[in-house]
Amino acid sequence: MRGPAILTFQENRLLEALSEEAAGALAASAERIRLSHGATVYEMGEPFTHAYFPIDAVISVVAVMRDGQQIEALTIGREGVCGAQGLLDGTAFTTGAWCQVAGDVYRVPMATFQEMCAADAGTRDLIERYLSATVDAMAQSIACNRLHYVSERCARWLLMTYRRVGRPDFPLTHEVLATMLGVRRAGVSIAAAELQRAGVIRYVRGKFTILDPDGLEAAACECYGAINRAFSERRLLVA
After folding, report:
1. How far apart are CA 190 and CA 185, in angstroms?
2. Best label site of 12, 109, 175, 234, fewest CB within 10 Å?
């Protein structure tokens, strides 16, 4: 399903930060589309054709091994854009990206995105600050995957997803969450059960519901706050 883009772009934090002139120019070629769960956004090695600005979808950027195993390097929601690396060299996506939580996105042709950033210094500065923040976020995720307990990482991931979709419930299986965290499914099941017993989440038939965001944040590792600071310190709105 697709439709014309609106002119205000208030559902995505990056687009919301654009000047009125830049937002109007982008809206002329943007389209609002629906991404289903599991939809491929970019295959590894695929040329940059579009930039995707999530509204209530969540996109996972994943590192893919030769045997097909994946681990998430970056979560992108309404605070950001998928495909901004196309501004750096414009060649191909070096990782993979797919839709983790179904929802709407604004899709903009990469050529239009590149032209706008080249013509408007404010937009270019905004995207460069965003890319800088994502480098820090990915570095924090690497440290998190190596040093923190599965339960803490699980709480962080669920909280980040909750903030990005803007609603308390979203479809997600233990198997998919385990793939994103790079752990066994049994480890995620144990961690989710602990969080459910603590009353901060509910999990029923492939759907998580966040009951107590503050309690979930208390259960998460320090990386949740560190990743948010990576954005806020660069004057970017977090989800």
Report:
1. 9
2. 175
Question: Would 173 be classed as within a structural domain?
Answer: yes
At what angle are helices 121-147 and 150-165 packed, to 10 degrees? 150
Whichever domain contains 163, its CATH number is 1.10.10.10
Q: Read off the tokens for 142.
A: 């690497």
Q: Is the predicted pLDDT of residue 192 greater than 60, yes or no?
A: yes
Among 85, 120, 155, where does a domain finish?
Answer: 120
Rounded distance, CA 202 to CA 180, Å?
A: 20
* Same-domain status, 99 and 174: no
Domain of 159, in residue numbers: 144-232
pLDDT tens readout for residues 168-190: 999 999 988 888 888 888 999 99
Kindly report the pTM of this predicted structure: 0.91
d(CA 75, CA 56): 13
Query: 64-76: buried (b, 16+ CB within 10 Å) or exposed (e) per residue?
Result: eeeeeebbbbbbb
- Closest to 107 (Cα-Cα) out of 57, 43, 167, 38: 57
Q: Taking residues 3-8, what's their average pLDDT?
A: 47
Q: What percent of the chain has pLDDT over 70?
A: 96
Q: Tell me the CB-side half-sphere exposure of residue 220, using CA atoms within 13 A.
A: 23
pLDDT tops 50 at residue 85? yes
**How many domains does the chain fold into?**
2
Structure tokens at 123: 């937009």
226 burial type by CB count under 10 A (0-12 exposed, 13-18 middle, 19+ buried): middle
| CA-based R_g, the chain, Å | 17
